[in-house]
């Protein structure tokens, strides 16, 4: 007897959708309330709600970015502006006298060097050739010419200056000026680290709350410090690090850090050779201390703000974006802020899952596209973009159900695109179906309100330098970074974000401290050489490789993507080459004497895979070691570069993939590799659709499962249920079909 | 009034050609003597000359590889066999007990571990994870099982063993067994470092000389130690390093080194993590000392041998190949050997030029193909190969004329291919034309017998870790190494080997010691990151980059190919990025915010260059810096990777090229880049053919020039002579047309 099952229709009801409204659009709001089933309205940066809208009966979200709210007060208190550590261009000394213009290629309307605080104490001139900081006596700041002057430079050496600058223009307001052609006064950001500014911000918040009796939810956008977002002299983005902490810096913060932690940071600790501790860098102890220092401060003051909101009888949400630096939703202080919910941008499965997994009562996805003129324009395809984003994001929501969804921007723009309005009507309905189908009748003992989806019978751990702190945030910078290889790495996260795995993000330090996860489990290690993702100098500590080696030999699994464990050291490039069974020739060895043999496809891992899958640009000159991996696919001119290979090591297994841009085919390949590496091939068919375009999600505690067509075309396929029962389904484009099931003959 | 010129026919006469003869081929020898114009006959490994041939009136070359000559004596004196340092496979310890089979994947007929000498003193077990040598007390050599046993291994660490092995089979004789299906007894190589063996070798040489009254030239093949050539358990090449010194090692040599130099080398000094100090590695001080130690020994004993040859009234030549380790024709001791000539294999311009430039009285190119069954077989194209090799090699000979040419192998094979015989007939004639056309009537004061060709009005310096020691030897390993990128680098050397430049090879150390060359000059820096060619850790010394920076700023030129000066350090990847104006994004930066602008072709450097030249596989994510290089060509998906760019730095200039596989087009591109970087564009047309397939070589001291069609098709083009006179020529496929000229109206 197999499982009993039947297809069902889910009534998702209404609600769960937030609409960006604006004064003058009352009619449209009511119409969309009906069509989209909205239960909340919000204002946006640059729009207001009318009293009519505010009292239509919807929950009212009001956005608030406290630090830029009172521009008059900021203008009167320039000493309390936020600051930032910036690095100058690299300047080559051709003689002993060197001048550095710190502001070269920065935007003068955004920054001004802060010379109120002693540059000798807060700035730093660095000899990049020698790798040394110059003593303050070796240079001067010429206030007249606005140049740093070094008189005793070493000719031929390259120098940089790290300097504190006042932020004259809050970067998100600047972004909106540029993107949305705003003309309003430039807003200046206040730094709450100054007690006077902090007091003023609380005052502003109190007044603001008092003035908004109809507001139900205060949506902080976000709290205090923006991620690093510096513009160049043309007003184009010069440096963007969505994870940066450089804009949290100030003379005061440097001094307070020293008092609190007992040692002083150098500007170089934050400047980091110009890399600014971006997430691809292995974090230094100093930077981790700085993050912790900022997080504690942000959480404490954010808590004060949230308490005021609660005292006013309203809920407090934060937007994960813009001024989110220091909030770290997967960090140790986040819970203490006391938020009721988090809203974040959903562009795909990774970003949506990043919001969905945040440990907070309510999460809301604000889907792309923004209702902004860059997409909502003649020739734009907002309906198509909304559909693509939903198809991607839905995969994450099916794994980690969310409470709410919405869109951001200007309703007036959306209403001019009826196809978009219709598309979103369907998205809202389907979103609510998931919410309803996976809701528990009663919250679990752990407060959980949604049914846990079924997962594979082994754990999957994404291993890198960051671990849970950067859950779903690895390689995510690829969104804005024209680094093509990042996309090849991001793809595995995109796949995982919608797959049935018990997933953990594990840091190298955690491995060293706590060891590796209990078996059965598989590690995934993906990235370019030298990065936080691949490990870089982390491999200098032999305990790391040794721990992984023993763990795999005992039966663990390892998936390596790109340049896993790459570090030229002691005759090896891939430090885990014995486990992976492949090595990369970097032009130092003479060890590859023969043309590698042709790949031998036909393994469990490549079953159903096309002959020439798109595994990214490939990593050149990766070869199987003698008695090493079995190569399943090769690429490159002459087909010499192993791009998919499997290996056994002791009782464990490993697979190597050159890259995994997201596609249905590659997502399936990753699943097969994970099951094989875990030694769980026999379980692979459980809760599985035969066609890789279709994904199956089961929720045993509510006795339901969903068959989801991830492709924008009809698909007919067979599903294998939990007990092996096979059923045929036909699914329309992007359809998500719901079923009820029971245990059948199973005990 | 322009230059007066007229086309001339050169009578090269006969001679200058060495034929490999063999007993039983007397008729063929006489026929070829006529057709090829030979004046010397030689035997080969495995062939003998008959008395008839020896007395035909030709100079008789007799090959001799002393160390394998007396196999009976070698078998009776196993303690005097040559040895080698070998590294075992990497073995992963999964528990505290570890066994290493040092001979795993080595060929048991080639090597046997030497445990006559205390393994505790001469071997080394290395913990590659910790990067540490184990004390000898930590391991034992089990003579019964032939295993090294480590009892206290760190579980999870990776170990290797470095061990001395006796060479049971001389590797060239082994190569011939494999390639030419020899069946004769395996020959064992004697080590002349043992006084008894040395005495025996001199005795053998005396007897050998006495037995060969008709021999005019003793062609040593070569002297004593073969380059590193280890076979694997299947008898396939496991590790080949044509530049290796690992086969010069022995217990005695290690002890003598210590006595002579005052410190002891560790096995690791020679093993070098398994890289074996191959030329792509930056040489360590210990390895340079070892090379010097070996060279001194080889030169001293070789001198003894050469003296015996001279005393017997014969000439002594050496073959640059096989047992050439320690002879280093561009090294400090080479001259002291007292050789009359050097023969070396010519496969293309680089290898031919490597022979041609050797400071010795006579040089002889032994052109490919070898008369071996791998080419001279059904379906083979020996005539075509000979033609292609000649077309390439001729470029080098026109720059650095040679005395002699020849072929190697078995005449019996060649005679079955009449097309080959006919092709070579033409090659011999044209070779002699060059020799005759460029010969000085009287040797110069410096002993020079050939006219110096005209060169560009600036110097070109190839910069790497080796300098003149590896003149024309950089990247040359590419011949046998399936490292595709090597070919992209070898191409620039191949181009230079036939171009009209005053060329020097410069080492990083030399730059630090002596500074950079007098201006005008251009440096060429080409290679993969981390190699001796690109510089790797040499860039940790800031003096190197500083010297180059100041020199370029003063007017020097720099051509960077591939990953020039690549070393992730202090925020830069290309350490000379300011000079080159380009940088490579390695996944650590967030500095590239925009799609790079489209390339701007139409510069002096890319004049005449096709839209999509073949610049190798490309180096991904190379971008122009802000206010940096002008990109002339870009490649990669989306055309974002700069692959040809030019930049100005101070008064100097630089060009970046991703790779330069050899082609007529790329050779011309390199010339244009060099002239531009030198600031010598105005001189570019001097002695230049308009069509890049045609090269012009002028010999002012003899008033001749040659217009050479390097293409195997007819070409019509214009030539610009030294004073700007332009003339039209029509050249047949591969034709080399000779002209006489005078100074015309010039003073």
Largest interface (C-beta under 8 Å): A-B, 77 and 77 residues
Low-confidence stretches of chain A: none
Strand order of the largest sheet of chain A: 2-3-4-14-17-18-19-20
Q: What is the multimeric organization of the chains shown?
A: homodimer
Give the full name of the CATH homologous superfamily of the largest domain in chain A.
Glycosidases
The major beta sheet of chain A can be summarized as: 8 strands, parallel, barrel
Task: Tell me, rounded to a whole number, the average pLDDT of chain A.
Answer: 94
| Distance from first to last alpha carbon of chain A | 11 Å
CATH class of the largest domain in chain A, named Alpha Beta
The CATH architecture of the largest domain in chain A: Alpha-Beta Barrel
Overall number of strands of chain A: 37
Q: Tell me the fraction of residues in β-strands of chain A, as a range.
A: 25-35%
Helix content of chain A: 25-40%
Count of separate DSSP helical elements of chain A: 18
Q: Tell the overall outline of chain A.
A: globular
Derived from helix and strand composition plus strand pairing, the structural class of chain A reads alpha/beta
* Gyration radius of chain A, in Å: 27 Å
Task: Indicate the CATH topology of the largest domain in chain A.
Answer: TIM Barrel
Structure description:
Two copies of one chain form a homodimer. The first copy, chain A, is α/β, with parallel strands linked by helices. Chain A folds into three domains: 5-67 and 195-229 and 283-438, Alpha-Beta Barrel (TIM Barrel), CATH 3.20.20.80; 459-683, Class I glutamine amidotransferase (GATase) domain (Rossmann fold); 688-741, Immunoglobulin-like, CATH 2.60.40.1180. The radius of gyration of chain A is 27 Å and the shape is globular. The N and C termini of chain A lie close together (11 Å). The model of chain A has no long low-confidence stretch (mean pLDDT 94). At the A-B interface, β16, α14 and α16 of A face β16, α14 and α16 of B.
């Amino acid at each position: 007897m197999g499982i009993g099952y039947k297809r069902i229709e889910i009534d998702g009801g209404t609600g769960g959708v937030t609409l960006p409204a604006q004064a003058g659009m009352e009619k449209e709001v009511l119409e969309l309330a009906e069509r989209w089933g909205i239960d909340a309205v919000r204002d946006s940066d640059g729009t207001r709600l009318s009293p009519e809208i505010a009292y239509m009966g919807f929950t009212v979200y009001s956005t608030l970015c406290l630090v830029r709210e009172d521009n008059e007060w900021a203008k009167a208190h320039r000493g309390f502006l936020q600051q930032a550590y910036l690095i100058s261009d690299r300047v080559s000394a051709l003689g002993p006298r060197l001048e550095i213009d710190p502001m070269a290629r920065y935007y003068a309307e955004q920054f001004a060097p802060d010379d109120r605080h002693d540059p000798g104490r807060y700035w730093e001139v660095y000899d990049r050739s020698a790798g040394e900081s110059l003593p303050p006596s070796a240079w001067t700041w010429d206030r007249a010419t606005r140049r740093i002057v070094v008189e005793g430079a070493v000719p031929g050496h390259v120098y940089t200056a790290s300097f504190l600058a006042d932020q004259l223009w809050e970067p998100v307001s600047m972004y909106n000026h540029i993107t949305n052609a705003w003309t309003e006064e430039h807003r200046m950001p206040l730094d709450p680290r100054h007690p006077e500014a902090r007091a003023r911000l609380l005052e502003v918040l109190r007044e603001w709350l008092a003035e908004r009796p109809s507001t139900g939810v205060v949506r902080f956008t976000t709290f205090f410090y923006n991620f690093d977002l510096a513009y160049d002299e043309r007003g184009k983005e010069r440096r963007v690090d969505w994870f940066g902490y450089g804009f949290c810096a100030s003379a005061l913060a440097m001094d307070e850090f020293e008092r609190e932690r007992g040692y002083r940071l150098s500007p170089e600790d934050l400047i980091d050779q110009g890399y600014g501790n971006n997430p691809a860098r292995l974090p230094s102890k100093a930077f981790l201390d700085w993050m912790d220092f900022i997080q504690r401060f942000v959480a404490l003051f954010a808590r004060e703000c949230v308490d005021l909101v609660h005292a006013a009888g309203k809920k407090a949400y934060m937007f994960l974006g813009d001024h989110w630096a220091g909030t770290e939703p997967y960090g140790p202080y986040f819970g203490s802020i006391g938020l009721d919910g988090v809203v974040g941008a959903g562009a795909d499965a990774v970003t949506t899952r990043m919001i969905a997994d945040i440990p907070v009562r309510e999460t809301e996805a604000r889907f792309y596209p923004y209702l902004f003129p860059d997409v909502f324009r003649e020739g734009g395809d907002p309906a198509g973009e909304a559909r693509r984003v939903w198809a991607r994001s839905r995969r994450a929501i099916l794994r980690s159900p969310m409470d709410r969804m919405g869109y951001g921007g200007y309703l007036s723009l959306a209403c001019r695109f009826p196809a978009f309005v219709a598309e979103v009507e369907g998205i809202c309905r389907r979103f609510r179906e998931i919410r309803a189908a996976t809701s528990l009748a009663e919250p679990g003992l752990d407060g959980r309100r949604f049914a846990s989806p079924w997962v594979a019978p082994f754990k999957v751990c994404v291993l890198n330098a960051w671990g849970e702190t950067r859950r779903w945030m690895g390689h995510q910078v690829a969104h804005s970074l024209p680094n093509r290889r990042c996309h090849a790495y991001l793809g595995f996260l995109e796949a995982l974000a919608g797959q049935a795995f018990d997933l953990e993000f594990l840091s190298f330090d955690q491995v060293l401290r706590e060891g590796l996860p209990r078996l059965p489990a598989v590690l995934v290690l993906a990235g370019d050489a030298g990065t936080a993702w691949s490990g870089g100098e982390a491999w200098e500590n032999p305990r790391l490789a040794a721990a992984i080696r023993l763990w795999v030999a005992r039966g663990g699994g390892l998936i390596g993507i790109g340049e896993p464990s790459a570090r030229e050291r002691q005759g090896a490039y891939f430090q885990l080459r014995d486990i992976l069974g492949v090595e990369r020739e970097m032009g130092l060895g003479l060890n590859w004497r023969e043309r590698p043999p042709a790949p031998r496809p036909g393994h469990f891992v490549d079953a159903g895979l096309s002959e020439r899958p798109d595994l990214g640009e490939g990593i050149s000159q990766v070869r199987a070691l003698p008695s090493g991996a079995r190569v399943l696919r090769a690429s490159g001119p002459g087909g010499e570069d192993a791009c998919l290979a499997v290996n056994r090591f002791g009782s464990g297994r490993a697979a190597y993939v050159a890259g995994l841009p997201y596609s249905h085919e590659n997502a399936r390949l990753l699943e097969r590799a994970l099951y094989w590496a875990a030694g769980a091939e026999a379980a692979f068919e459980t809760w599985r659709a035969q066609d890789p375009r279709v994904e199956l999600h089961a929720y045993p505690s509510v006795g339901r499962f969903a068959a989801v067509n991830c492709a924008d075309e009809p698909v007919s396929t067979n599903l294998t249920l939990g007990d092996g029962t096979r059923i045929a389904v036909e699914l329309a484009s992007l359809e998500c079909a719901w079923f009820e099931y029971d245990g059948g003959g199973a005990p």
